[in-house]
Amino acid sequence: MRITRAIITAAGRGGHEYAASDTVQKALYPIVDRDGRTKPVIQIIVEEAIESGVEEVCVVVAPGDEAIYRAQFRNYAENLRSAREGRDEAMEQAKRLDALAQRLHFVVQPDPKGYGHAVWCARAFAAGEPVLLLLSDHLYVSAETRRCAKQLIDLAAAESCAVSAVQATREHLIHQYGTITGRRLEGRPDVHIIDELVEKPNPTLAELKLQTPGVRAGHYLCFFGMHILTPLVFELLDDLVARDARELGSIQLSTALAAVAKRERYLALETAGWRYNLGVKFGLLEAQIGLAMAGVDRQVMLSLLLELLIRCQQHHGS
Known about the structure:
The protein is an alpha/beta fold. The chain is built from twelve helices and 13 strands. It has helices spanning 20-23, 41-50, 65-83, 88-102, 115-120, 123-126, 148-159, 203-209, 231-243, 253-263, 283-293, 298-317; strands at residues 5-9, 30-32, 38-40, 56-61, 104-108, 131-135, 138-142, 162-170, 178-185, 188-199, 219-229, 266-270, 273-277. Strand 9 and strand 10 form a beta hairpin. Helix 3 (65-83) packs antiparallel against helix 4 and helix 9 packs across helix 10 (253-263). It is globular and about 55 Å long.
């Protein structure tokens, strides 16, 4: 199995980031990446895919947003060239933006019918091939030399099946994520054969149905925000969309993935790294700290955090 295409869903607006998200797409928020450069979130996610071996990327957007994204890449590159003319670093970044923009495709989700529906809208781009799926509001920091997406792609290529990235997650957070249970793959303590998954379960349901042997007490294996989808997923989404089969008010990708687990081999990889969910309270702040601590600005961030803690202690202690 060879994965050369990626889909990024970016049609939603961030409720926690209102009113900023009512004006600017949350995937265009600026954040300082590990290399010390300020980038829109979407660029960091596209680079996650490209640096993992993906050749083409499709971004699922709301009506009218394609022009905004293309203008963002074009204007940023032009600003780098004009404002920092002659600086090698700026010229390199501008060329990088141009190259990324050449790999981008866009497809419109005409109505906000859910995550599964957004993925289904990119079915023509998938073209019957396995694809990497990423979220526009999740950023990742790998704990090893390979990108998190690369870890997932390598496993899917080796095992020739659908794979979802998962992470052991504390019980009080599982209502935010799809949650799986399964059996460890022989010889791979970080890989599980998925038996069942539930979208955003409550703790009672999770305790009854979703405990996974080997996962520490009080934790469950929750989706990490990236998947390798096989053509079967799009067949199942075709059926869900045709029937307008909604759960929790929308067409869910997890409904199709649960059916995949019953029909073909489907694995979960405990990814070596960390996810940062920009769609939750303080998510953007946590992501910025996480990226800085993993990059060239680590010492700067440590100094800022220490200074902030000292000031807070002095204020509350006085």
